[in-house]
Amino acid sequence: MVKITFDGIEVEVEEGTTILNAARKIGGEVVPPAMCYYTPLKGTGGKCRACMVRVAAGSAKDPRPMPKLVASCITPVQDGMVVENTTNPDVLAARKGVVEMLLINHPLDCPICDQAGECDLQNFAYEHGTSGTRYEEERRTFDKIDIGPLVQLHMTRCILCYRCVYTADQLTEKRVHGVLGRGDAAEIGTYVENIIDNEFSGNVIDVCPVGALTDKTFRFKNRVWFTKPVDAHRDCPTCSGKVVLWMRGNDVLRVTARKDEYNEVQEFICNTCRFDKKDANNWTIEGPRKIARTSVISANHYELPVLNVNVIPNLPGSTEEDLQSTPFNLGRQV
Amino acid sequence: MQSLSNRAKKLEKKPMNFSERMYLPAIFQGLSITMRHFFKKKATIKYPEETRPMSAVWRGLHVLKRDEKGRERCTACGLCAVACPAEAITMVAGERKRGEENLYREEKYAISYEINMLRCIFCGLCEEACPKAAIFLQNDKVAPARYERDEFIYGKDRLVEPMPIQNL
């Protein structure tokens, strides 16, 4: 076990843990954002530079600071390391620069994009970026490629995080898509118009931090914030069957895997669950999903106020029962 | 009963004198007030024929604007609907087909767009939320009175700005 100080908070983690995971052990506001790092996938990280932090002291043995900001998702911790994230203005300034660079070629078509509302890049830019752009040149554009009937590819929105490539490599047998070209011309594609039809290929939609890979069966159906996320499960022979249904009324508009607080999927789901089971009768519904109050998805979703708080102690039993049966007793402690 | 404040005054009912008993002076006094009002400036207007001048920032009936090429600006992003405190706006989005590029500005457009003018409180938050400068509240139009409730649900036929007249 090694001890590090992250933003003034001491945390003890196992040797070989990355700085990012150590920060996630603390949790909350201090966790650096990550656009390309994805815990369940091996080899991810180090590409988007969103998680850069300053190491003020390398280790207890050698307390010199690291000369440059480091990507926290691929830098392992050392005993006595002192890391600065939100406490260092340099880091925040660098992050602002990262947002600007990521958005250089991003079309900013959020009003059209189906990912809007649950987009990592949108959140990242909102929290760390500036509202204006200094970029005046033509933005990079691509010819539209059809990669099959289930997944819609919008190459202009891609930030080349490589998550989908790792997903296809590590989850499925034969990967048909990858990054073609180099530098500015690099793009996600399926060489010679191949079609992605693997049973687990739909997971590239969930891992994509932006709207580059979206669900074709949900395309323009509704906005994320008008649908209601509900946890559900079914007995699936190929996958865990644990999903989130995005419902509008009684219609299931979209099925996704369950994402944790860092927008990472722990249990990937199969295409049958994702694309074919769009009927609420196919699923056992567990209950509404908890969505952060700050998310646009919880906009206009009102919760019942906590009424009937116990103000009179030792009420008679019959009165207690009466209060229990009223519809507004949700917060009541008996 | 004794008064609490000791400020109560005892009223005495005096008998009316002659002129008071005639009632005529009081009638003429009242009539003169009425007559004076005939020559005063009227507080009301004859509404449908005359209208009052409206403030430049008046928020009236909505309009869905077209761009300079006559294409609909609205892309059915739903931000107006989520911003709407009265939840008056609903929409259905659709994908633009090939050959419709002169009708819709973006690849997504609103197949239907409805505002319930009975729910709308004309706060203008939709106008503020719109990222495409598509919806505006006009400062010269008010939602007119109608007989049926469903007539207040304004669809695209009444909201979208009419096509500009082409120069022939």
Automatic annotation (TrEMBL), chain A:
<keyword id="KW-0479">Metal-binding</keyword>
<dbReference type="GO" id="GO:0016491">
    <property type="term" value="F:oxidoreductase activity"/>
</dbReference>
<dbReference type="InterPro" id="IPR054351">
    <property type="entry name" value="NADH_UbQ_OxRdtase_ferredoxin"/>
</dbReference>
<feature type="domain" description="2Fe-2S ferredoxin-type">
    <location>
        <begin position="1"/>
        <end position="89"/>
    </location>
</feature>
<keyword id="KW-0001">2Fe-2S</keyword>
<keyword id="KW-0004">4Fe-4S</keyword>
<dbReference type="GO" id="GO:0016020">
    <property type="term" value="C:membrane"/>
</dbReference>
<keyword id="KW-0472">Membrane</keyword>
<feature type="domain" description="4Fe-4S His(Cys)3-ligated-type">
    <location>
        <begin position="90"/>
        <end position="129"/>
    </location>
</feature>
<dbReference type="Pfam" id="PF10588">
    <property type="entry name" value="NADH-G_4Fe-4S_3"/>
</dbReference>
<dbReference type="Pfam" id="PF22117">
    <property type="entry name" value="Fer4_Nqo3"/>
</dbReference>
<dbReference type="GO" id="GO:0051537">
    <property type="term" value="F:2 iron, 2 sulfur cluster binding"/>
</dbReference>
<dbReference type="GO" id="GO:0051539">
    <property type="term" value="F:4 iron, 4 sulfur cluster binding"/>
</dbReference>
<keyword id="KW-0520">NAD</keyword>
<dbReference type="GO" id="GO:0046872">
    <property type="term" value="F:metal ion binding"/>
</dbReference>
<dbReference type="Pfam" id="PF13510">
    <property type="entry name" value="Fer2_4"/>
</dbReference>
<comment type="similarity">
    <text>Belongs to the complex I 75 kDa subunit family.</text>
</comment>
<keyword id="KW-0408">Iron</keyword>
<dbReference type="InterPro" id="IPR050123">
    <property type="entry name" value="Prok_molybdopt-oxidoreductase"/>
</dbReference>
<dbReference type="InterPro" id="IPR001041">
    <property type="entry name" value="2Fe-2S_ferredoxin-type"/>
</dbReference>
<keyword id="KW-0411">Iron-sulfur</keyword>
<dbReference type="InterPro" id="IPR036010">
    <property type="entry name" value="2Fe-2S_ferredoxin-like_sf"/>
</dbReference>
TrEMBL record, chain B:
<keyword id="KW-0479">Metal-binding</keyword>
<keyword id="KW-0520">NAD</keyword>
<dbReference type="GO" id="GO:0009060">
    <property type="term" value="P:aerobic respiration"/>
</dbReference>
<dbReference type="GO" id="GO:0005506">
    <property type="term" value="F:iron ion binding"/>
</dbReference>
<keyword id="KW-0411">Iron-sulfur</keyword>
<feature type="binding site">
    <location>
        <position position="130"/>
    </location>
    <ligand>
        <name>[4Fe-4S] cluster 1</name>
    </ligand>
</feature>
<protein>
    <recommendedName>
        <fullName>NADH-quinone oxidoreductase subunit I</fullName>
        <ecNumber>7.1.1.-</ecNumber>
    </recommendedName>
</protein>
<dbReference type="GO" id="GO:0050136">
    <property type="term" value="F:NADH dehydrogenase (quinone) (non-electrogenic) activity"/>
</dbReference>
<keyword id="KW-0004">4Fe-4S</keyword>
<dbReference type="InterPro" id="IPR017900">
    <property type="entry name" value="4Fe4S_Fe_S_CS"/>
</dbReference>
<keyword id="KW-0874">Quinone</keyword>
<dbReference type="Pfam" id="PF12838">
    <property type="entry name" value="Fer4_7"/>
</dbReference>
<dbReference type="GO" id="GO:0048038">
    <property type="term" value="F:quinone binding"/>
</dbReference>
<comment type="subunit">
    <text>NDH-1 is composed of 14 different subunits. Subunits NuoA, H, J, K, L, M, N constitute the membrane sector of the complex.</text>
</comment>
<feature type="domain" description="4Fe-4S ferredoxin-type">
    <location>
        <begin position="65"/>
        <end position="94"/>
    </location>
</feature>
<keyword id="KW-1003">Cell membrane</keyword>
<dbReference type="GO" id="GO:0051539">
    <property type="term" value="F:4 iron, 4 sulfur cluster binding"/>
</dbReference>
<feature type="binding site">
    <location>
        <position position="77"/>
    </location>
    <ligand>
        <name>[4Fe-4S] cluster 1</name>
    </ligand>
</feature>
<dbReference type="InterPro" id="IPR010226">
    <property type="entry name" value="NADH_quinone_OxRdtase_chainI"/>
</dbReference>
<feature type="binding site">
    <location>
        <position position="123"/>
    </location>
    <ligand>
        <name>[4Fe-4S] cluster 2</name>
    </ligand>
</feature>
<comment type="similarity">
    <text>Belongs to the complex I 23 kDa subunit family.</text>
</comment>
<feature type="binding site">
    <location>
        <position position="84"/>
    </location>
    <ligand>
        <name>[4Fe-4S] cluster 2</name>
    </ligand>
</feature>
